[in-house]
């Protein structure tokens, strides 16, 4: 993998996901995370870690979390990986 360029811990508000229709909330939460990372790190590509994806979908498509703490790492090649921080 490419060398690490920048790493950030962010809290992403997912209120836009709750404004969506009931059956579109979790897919909208994934889009909100991508938009937040894109705005702050400006990567070319964004990859969401499997553990983060499972965490978002844990309570189904109608009940995503209200906010989520993520770790975003941007690499020199322009790609970014988003995952849950190790607490």
Pick out its properties:
alpha+beta, Ribosomal Protein L31e, Chain: W, 4-stranded mixed β-sheet, elongated
Q: Summary?
A:
With 87 residues, this protein is an alpha+beta fold.
What's the name of the CATH homologous superfamily?
Ribosomal protein L31
Name the overall outline: elongated
Poorly predicted ranges: none
CATH third-tier fold name? Ribosomal Protein L31e, Chain: W
Could you tell me the number of beta strands? Answer: 4
In words, what does this structure look like?
The protein is α+β, with helices and mostly antiparallel strands and about 90 residues long. The protein has one domain: Ribosomal protein L31 (Ribosomal Protein L31e, Chain: W, Roll). Helices cover about 35% and strands about 30% of the residues. It is built from three helices and four strands. Strands 1-3-4-2 form a four-stranded mixed sheet. β3 and β4 form a beta hairpin.
List the helices and strands and how they pair.
Layout: E1 4-13, H1 15-19, H2 25-41, E2 45-48, H3 50-57, E3 67-75, E4 79-83
């Amino acid at each position: 993998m490419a060398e690490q360029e920048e790493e950030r811990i962010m809290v992403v508000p997912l209120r836009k996901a709750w404004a969506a229709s009931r059956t579109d909330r979790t897919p909208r939460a994934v889009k909100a995370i991508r938009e937040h990372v894109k705005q702050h790190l400006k990567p070319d590509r964004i990859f969401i870690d499997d553990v983060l994806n499972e965490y978002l979908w844990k309570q189904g498509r109608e009940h995503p979390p209200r906010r989520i703490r993520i770790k975003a790492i941007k690499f020199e090649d322009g790609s970014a990986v988003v995952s849950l921080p190790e607490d």
